[in-house]
Backbone:
């Protein structure tokens, strides 16, 4: 019995959607909209979805669902800069990461997801390694990655580095280990 094939998202349409979203966001000017690449996406909760995109060192995330955010879409700039924004970033040679919050069910506190950029085409996997807890694997698409899970909000406190992002190539060799920092 023939079954319909799953819908495939048109990359041109996804790029157009990102460009439209960013036009309304507090983001740097879009010089060349064709350079935006759609990235990883996932259902974060039964009622909330996130989609990532990238333009060079810029990472954008757009959430859809029951609760609209005043900061949506959000653009994070991984280029070298000073200021408090760096407290939320871990930048390495092959990957760069920050965190996003979602699932504000009570309006006060959310759940954390790790989002970032993959800078090396040889990177095949990224995991968040945590002592005494299972590794969490990332979804990697279009030079972006996303790690979401309810247990990320309560990482064990053990010094400034509570977890490590591990990037591996197609052969399973570690290309980079990047401390993921939880700032107080």
Residues:
């Amino acid at each position: 019995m023939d079954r319909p094939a799953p819908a495939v998202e048109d990359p041109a349409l996804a790029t157009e959607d990102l460009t439209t979203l960013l036009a309304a966001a507090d983001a740097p000017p879009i010089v060349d909209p064709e350079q935006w690449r759609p990235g990883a996406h996932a259902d974060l909760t039964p009622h909330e979805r996130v989609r990532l995109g990238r333009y060079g060192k810029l990472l954008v995330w757009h959430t859809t669902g029951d609760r609209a955010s005043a900061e949506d879409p959000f653009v994070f700039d991984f280029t070298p800069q000073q200021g408090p924004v760096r407290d939320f970033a871990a930048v390495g040679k092959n990957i760069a990461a920050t965190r996003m919050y979602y699932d504000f069910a009570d309006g006060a506190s959310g759940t954390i997801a790790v989002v970032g950029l993959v800078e090396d085409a040889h990177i095949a996997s990224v995991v968040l390694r945590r002592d005494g807890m299972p590794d969490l694997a990332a979804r990697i698409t279009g030079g972006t990655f996303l790690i979401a899970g309810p247990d990320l909000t309560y990482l064990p406190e053990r010094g400034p580095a509570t977890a490590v992002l591990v990037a591996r190539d197609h052969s399973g060799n570690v290309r980079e280990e990047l401390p993921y920092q939880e700032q107080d």
User: Anything to note?
Assistant: Confidence is low (pLDDT under 50) at residues 1-13.
